[in-house]
Design goal:
It is built from nine helices and eight strands. By secondary structure, it is of the alpha/beta class. The two termini are 33 Å apart. About 5% of the residues have low confidence.
Length: 262
């Protein structure tokens, strides 16, 4: 039932000026919504509390995928590999990725989010390259990464097909793309939209447009022709009794898709 898009590197003049990035995939209303809450990313009881509770499950899934793909284990196991977190928000994923050893680039269309992420990473002593930029801007520089993360963001962009193709194009040989999003089902309408926004108030009302949720087969189709071998969906379901998310076969609300390049 989570769908809010989600951590110090060289200073970026655009973000220093307090302006956001622009691009064909950017929805200005969504950028403004998340920018207004930027200072609260790291408050575990604030508006992003659901992401804090969701993070252990996300991190466990990512770690399993990385270990299987790169055949590495242990602390700092992924040293020497590069990772980009597209739509990094306040850095809730970027920081643990850096601790795993990745050389991390975090990009977000909101300069406010980038400022929050950079400040927190500085406090933690983590060297993460944050930029107020879009996936399209990074791709235009010709950069590729061993891991490309697009977590809880594709449902917020204007042109998801173009966005996913851009992300796929940044996957280096031997690398992988991980997409996390919400399924467009009656179950997700009830739980991911109505329950999460209006009953439990886990995220602000209006955070999601259910019509922009994507089915797994739609994501698979959008990645067709990119050279990636796409697997999934891998479901993540909320257990209300344990107050946690668990991996499983239920992809009716939250799920992952993974694309690998040979």
């Amino acid at each position: 039932m989570i769908g809010s898009s989600d951590g110090s590197g060289a200073r970026n003049p655009q973000s220093e000026a307090g302006t956001g990035a622009a691009g064909p995939s950017i929805d200005p209303a969504d950028v403004a919504r998340f920018s207004a809450q930027a200072a609260e990313w790291w408050d575990p009881k604030g508006p992003f509390a659901p992401l804090h509770r969701f993070n252990p499950s996300r991190l466990a899934f990512l770690r399993d995928q990385f270990q299987a793909r790169f055949d590495r284990r242990g602390r700092g196991a992924f040293t020497g590999l590069t990772l980009i977190d597209v739509g990094c928000g306040g850095g809730l994923i970027a920081e643990p990725m850096r601790r795993l050893g990745f050389e991390v680039t975090g990009v977000d269309a909101s300069a406010e989010n980038v400022g929050t992420a950079r400040a927190h990473a500085d406090q933690m002593g983590l060297d993460i390259a944050y930029r107020a930029a879009t996936a399209e801007q990074i791709a235009a520089e010709g950069r590729t990464f061993d891991v490309v993360l697009a977590l809880e963001i594709v449902e917020h962009v204007v042109d998801p097909a173009a966005f996913l193709k851009t992300c796929a194009g940044m996957v280096a040989p031997g690398g992988l793309l991980v997409v996390a999003t919400l399924n467009r089902t009656l179950k997700s309408l009830a739980l991911g939209k109505v329950m999460a926004e209006y009953v439990l108030r886990w995220v602000p009302a209006g955070t999601h447009d259910w019509r922009q949720f994507l089915k797994p087969e739609e994501i698979r189709g959008m990645l067709d022709g990119t050279g990636l071998d796409v697997t999934g969906p891998f479901g993540v379901a909320y257990d209300p009794l344990a107050d946690r998310w668990d991996q499983g076969d239920d992809a009716g609300v939250n799920y992952f898709m993974v694309g690998t390049r040979g």
